[in-house]
Amino acid sequence: MSVEIIGMIQTQKQSEIHPASGPAVDRDYVRAFAQAHEQGGFDRVLVPHHSTGPSATLAISYAAAVTERVHFMLAHRPGFTAPTLAARQIATLDQFSGGRLGVHFISGGSDAEQQRDGDFLNHDERYARTDEYLGILRRIWTEDKPFDHEGKYYRFTQGFSEVKPAQRPHVPVFFGGASQVAIEVAGRHADVYALWGESLDQVRELTARVRAEAARNGRQVRFSVSFRPILAATEAQAWARAERILARTRHLREVAGLAPGGPQQSEGARRLLAAADQGARVDKRLWTEIAKLTGARSNSTALVGTPEQVADALLDYYDLGVTTFLIRGFDPLEDAVDYGRELIPRVRALVAQREAGRKAA
User: Fold this and answer.
1) Pairing with 352, which of 112, 154, 236, 254 sits 20 to 30 Å away (CA)?
2) How many structural domains comprise the chain?
3) Residue 78's closest CA among 101, 106, 104?
4) Integer Cα distance of 248 and 252 in angstroms
5) Is 13 exposed, middle or buried (0-12, 13-18, 19+ CB in 10 A)?
6) Could you tell me the pTM of the whole model?
7) Bridge partners (DSSP) listed for residue 231
8) How much is the pLDDT for 111?
9) Looking at residue 277, which CATH number applies to its domain?
10) How confident is the model over 9-25, as pLDDT tens digits?
11) Which pLDDT value is given to residue 27?
12) What is the rounded average pLDDT of the residues 46-58?
């Protein structure tokens, strides 16, 4: 199995240790950030979505124009755009990017976040809507004749798209969500099921459930896990850097008047906090302190160590069947450069060794 490495770009510099400053859209930063990922050997970069942030779709259109090879992953929330229109927009962007687009569909793990854009459905209803939405997108992308649809959330007559995705049969569908209703939707639609950086036991359990659900639908699914690697020349220096990141995050949250966070309506966040309950350090080098401090509001667990140690830890997940890793740093651009130089080549080399050994056996 080959391995895919995904990064993440944003439209301005920000992270837990870097408060957002300056314009919400910094073109020079986006260009440098996207090109650093391409030059660093990343396969794909995620552009996230937030209810108060710039358009991820338009950010990708710009990033694709200033790169040539790296692929993209659009974070997209069903419910705010009619699926017929969204299908045409995604297909058009895939065409203009030269077949470099994937889409991560996010049903929403926070009522407050969804309600900013006028969505007042509850958690389970959002996943039911996503199920219907993805079924429509697949038909719009692949069918050669107009069709009618009448469902619980969407109704239209003679829906059709003259533009089809450059990738066939359609763009890759990434999907996340750890609740039972989310897993059922993943089993029907996901090409790649995405988890946050959980412990090895948690990943083993959850991927088994998703595989079983996909099998019930006659499908197979690949898996992605997200981490925040913290690298240094020695293990001691890496852990010291992790402690500095924690102190800086705690300070900035105190200045902003933010208390330690609790989980939202996100089962994924609750699972990260369950990992944190096992201790600050889990398995070989999974570090959970930022997740605990922030309430696991995003992928917030780290792998801490030298590049060799972190690559070795990633291979433990590869051995569980995870073939995609999303890695992003607390110093976003600088870490992306460092990953490209120090971590990604080591991960690819270890995967090649592992596969050569399996073939020989």
Assistant:
1) 236
2) 1
3) 106
4) 6
5) middle
6) 0.96
7) 305
8) 81
9) 3.20.20.30
10) 999 999 999 999 899 99
11) 98
12) 94
